[in-house]
Write a structure and sequence with these properties.
The structure is a single chain. The chain is α+β, with helices and mostly antiparallel strands. It has a single domain, classed as Nucleoside diphosphate kinase-like domain (Alpha-Beta Plaits). 41% of the residues lie in helices and 18% in strands. The chain has a 4-stranded antiparallel sheet with strand order 2-3-1-4. The longest helix has 12 residues. It binds adenosine-5'-triphosphate.
Length: 136
């Protein structure tokens, strides 16, 4: 089995989509092994998004991610890293495929940061690193 770190970002929580998003994860057959609602600190986000430091969207991204609570989850299942990224859809919600979380529930809001509802780890190494950041 494998695990991944999923975040329902502040736009998802604020729009009341947490339940729908978690239901899609469970309906696919994955297990919610850990779950919590938390307002992230700048320190946590600078670690989480370390690879994006210096990019033009870094500061707007950190500000957005601190703008309200997120729901963090450790999700388990065989090939869950790929499986969740497939469920989530492409980064840009306007063009993410229908049938995906971002494609069905997201869109562009004319802002500097892509408000795209969810995050999912992109490799086993990132998953373990990110689970450490969010769940200690
Ligand atoms: P995530 O890592 O959140 O699952 P991702 O892997 O598709 O999504 P990354 O490239 O890791 O996206 O970027 C992290 C986040 O930064 C994106 O989810 C999005 O919110 C934001 N972002 C990425 N690229 C841009 C961009 N060019 N302009 C604005 N915001 C962006």
């Amino acid at each position: 089995t494998q695990r991944t770190l999923v975040l329902v970002k502040p736009d998802g929580v604020q729009r009341g989509l947490t339940g729908q998003i978690l239901a899609r994860i469970e309906a696919k057959g994955y297990t919610l092994a850990e779950l919590k609602r938390v307002t992230a600190t700048r320190e946590v986000l600078e670690q989480h998004y370390a690879e994006h430091q210096g990019k033009p969207f870094f500061e707007p991204l950190v500000e957005f991610m601190m703008s309200g609570p997120v729901v963090a989850a450790v999700v388990e299942g065989d090939r869950v890293i790929e499986g969740f990224r497939s469920l989530a859809g492409a980064t840009e919600p306007t063009t993410a495929a229908p049938g995906t979380i971002r494609g069905d529930l997201g869109r562009d809001w004319g802002e500097k940061v892509q408000k795209n509802l969810v995050h999912g780890s992109d490799s086993p190494e990132s998953a373990e690193r990110e689970i450490g950041i969010w769940f200690g």
